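A common beginner's mistake is to predict each chain separately and then try to dock the pieces by hand. The better habit, illustrated here, is to supply every component at once so that their relative placement is modeled jointly.
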Amino acid sequence: MKVFNKIFLLLTAAVLLYGCGYSSGQEAEVPASKDLITVGFTQVGAESDWRLASSASVQKALTVENGFNLIFNDAQQKQENQIKAVREFIDQNVDYIIIDPITEIGWESTLMEARDAAIPVIIVDRRVDVQDPSLYTAWIGSDFKLEGDLACGWLKAYLDAKGIHGRINIADIQGTLDSSAQLGRTKALEEAEQRYPNWHIVAKESGEFTKAKGFEVMEKMLKTHRDSINVVYCENDNEAFGAKEAIEKTGKHIGTDFEHGDIMLISFDSTRAGLLLTQSGDIGTNVECNPEYGPKLLKMIEALERGETLIHDQYIDEQIFSAEPLVVSVWTGSQKKKVTLLSDEIIKERNY
Ligand code: AHR
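With all components supplied together, the output reads:
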């Protein structure tokens, strides 16, 4: 539905409701659903704090008051659920489909079905790996490889600043395998291992982006490599929360005194709880993954309603945080990025 018509209908509905004697204390009646833009959104799941924030951002933006009828699907980390949901959206003849794809592969035929039904598809956060990029209207999301490069760049700068040049054993608690977030962050670490001869990835297993699995995987890794792990590269905050509990359960200390057996955590997302652990020094660096897609998706759909063409692929802005003043900037191999020194203010403003 065109934006002008939508505004006109909302105003008309407001005037009619006022005329019917609705007082300001009562809930205003919403416009009829046929006047709304219907959007089907299949979300990855509810595996992490980041994910809950991302769902909330979309649900807060695509509201009836803003002219939307949002059909929200929680795919519970299963791609088959997402494919089923997209087919249902097509059957319901929605106006737009939004997909946050659990894994990159396996989307070709589903996107073809949406194209045959002439329903525009917006991909958000993670990517789809398809031959023909015109199968989706636009993608907006994170540069996960850059996130990983930033984390590794920070670790390298930190070790150099501290004069630590001996062997560094790294355990990688990966995200959901084959998701863009896992592929990019793991790749960055693997490349860094190739670049720096003293870095060794001694363990690698998926923690599925959850605290419970992060705990379980960390416990297992500690049994196998009890006294040799120096750094745990957690591919999101929830895994870091689980890893911290598992490490502390064994009586080991989280910190940077590697010579005395400390284990350093590195993490991604920069949720409020993650930043608090970064401020206290439990997490050395925390690379932001921005979940605030709601307002951006709203603007994108409004632009499409006006008949505009969207930028096909665009990255969302992200920062790198640390409480360690020794490292002020990070070199990723292609760019230099300032490290944001954590403050109470930054943490207070974080709403997820
Ligand atoms: O795709 C974004 C990633 O998925 C976030 O890092 C993680 O927390 C989430 O579950």
